[in-house]
């Protein structure tokens, strides 16, 4: 494994005293308690809903998958291996303001700094139920391609969002939302790290924050997203849609009608949900595992294992799911990670208080879009163009909601090509 000194600050980037090196190291006692809780957590018996005869998940997670995932977490999964992977990159924590009054929280981030004086700063923003783990395959590919930091054309910054992972949660004094997250991210990039004219890349919640940054923050020069649900332009002619767009809209209908109950719960009763999911690692595994299984493209992960029923599943995806769940569990952050849903989803027939359409990113700012067919709400190009100065568009053949995790090679190529477009225009 390459040393975590790869991409450490030197030369072009000097970190202020507010920034300190950080090492992920969960207490062994906490790991032992998690194993005990897993062993003592029962899985209920089969019923129609969790063992549908047709083999589908249309009524929720299948019991047999959870039985196997529980066994893998207990017997095969290594959190220390996950820590080693995270710590193979330079990690930092910084005290960052959350408001104009200067109230501070600690934000943990991966910071990989080029020695190239012309390096472009890029900040990567995860979503829910994501984390900085989504970006490790992408960063690993870039480390292999640019083993000498002098060659790296980017500064790569990936923060754990407030209330996620190893970052502090927002204060309890009021409701915080996406504009507050954007303030924290911009403060980190510009005020703390001194990285101006930066590019932001994100999916899911990260794409929403990216739009706020592009719309509101002067030093955010460009936005590259892989998720951008926006409404159709007025009087849009639906007969002009391609077959790929029609399939995308059908998937969006599935998500809204059959796959978004979790979001309504997170938007309307996050207190109850957070308390319930914080009581059991197995409950958290079921809740988050369902989302990864439903939102990833089956073509992204080889179905290489067989369950007792004969159903096939991907062990690699299962391992990624367990790592993600373990991160939420061991940091105790699931109950502080739901705040974005109060803004993103309509309740009781009301429009959501903020949406991507409310934060258009227009000239002179520039927008790139990477379109993946298995995204939960794939959106036609003509719709996105209404709210974006779209200078880069790429349709991929494989990939879903966790594109950075599913298709890191594609994301790496897309990022490099988007930066080239920005430098040409």
TrEMBL record:
InterPro entries: AB_hydrolase_fold, Epox_hydrolase-like, Epoxide_hydro_N, Epoxide_hydrolase. Keywords: Hydrolase. Gene3D superfamilies: alpha/beta hydrolase. Residues 20-135 form the Epoxide hydrolase N-terminal domain. It holds the Pfam family EHN. The keyword Hydrolase applies. Belongs to the peptidase S33 family. This is Epoxide hydrolase N-terminal domain-containing protein.
């Amino acid at each position: 494994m390459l040393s975590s000194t790869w991409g450490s600050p030197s030369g072009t980037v000097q970190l202020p005293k507010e920034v300190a090196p950080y090492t992920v190291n969960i207490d062994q006692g906490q790991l032992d308690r998690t194993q005990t809780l897993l062993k003592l957590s029962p899985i209920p018996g089969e019923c129609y809903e969790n063992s549908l005869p047709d083999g589908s998940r249309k009524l929720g997670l299948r019991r047999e998958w959870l039985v196997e995932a529980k066994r893998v977490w207990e017997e095969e999964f290594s959190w220390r291996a996950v820590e080693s992977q995270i710590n193979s990159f330079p990690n930092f924590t910084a005290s960052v303001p959350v408001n104009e009054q200067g109230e501070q929280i600690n934000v943990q981030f991966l910071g990989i700094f080029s020695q190239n004086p012309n390096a472009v700063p890029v900040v990567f923003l995860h979503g829910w139920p994501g984390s900085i783990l989504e970006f490790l395959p992408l960063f690993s590919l870039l480390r292999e391609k640019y083993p000498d930091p002098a060659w790296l054309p980017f500064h790569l910054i990936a923060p754990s969002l407030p209330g996620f992972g190893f970052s502090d949660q927002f204060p309890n004094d009021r409701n915080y939302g996406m504009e507050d997250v954007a303030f924290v991210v911009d403060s980190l990039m510009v005020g703390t790290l001194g990285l101006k004219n930066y590019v932001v890349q994100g999916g899911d919640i990260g794409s929403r924050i990216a739009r706020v940054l592009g719309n509101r923050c002067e030093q955010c020069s460009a936005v590259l997203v892989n998720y951008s649900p926006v409404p159709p332009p007025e009087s849009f002619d639906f007969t002009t849609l391609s077959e790929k767009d029609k399939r995308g809209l059908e998937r969006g209908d599935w998500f809204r009608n059959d796959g978004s109950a979790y979001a309504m719960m997170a938007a309307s009763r996050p207190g109850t949900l957070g308390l319930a999911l914080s009581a059991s690692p197995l409950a958290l595994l079921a809740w988050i595992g369902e989302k990864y299984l439903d939102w990833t493209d089956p073509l992204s992960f080889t179905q290489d294992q067989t369950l007792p029923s004969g159903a096939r599943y991907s062990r690699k995806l299962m391992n990624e799911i367990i790592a993600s769940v373990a991160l939420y569990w061991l940091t105790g952050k699931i109950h502080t990670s739901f705040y974005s849903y109060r803004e993103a989803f309509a309740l009781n027939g009301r429009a959501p208080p903020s949406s991507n359409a409310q934060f258009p990113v227009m000239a002179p700012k520039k927008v790139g879009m990477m379109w993946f067919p298995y995204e939960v709400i794939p959106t036609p190009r003509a719709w996105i163009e209404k709210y974006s100065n779209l200078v880069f568009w790429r349709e991929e053949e494989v990939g879903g909601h966790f594109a950075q995790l599913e298709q890191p090679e594609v994301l790496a190529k897309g990022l490099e090509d988007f930066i080239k477009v920005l430098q040409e225009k």
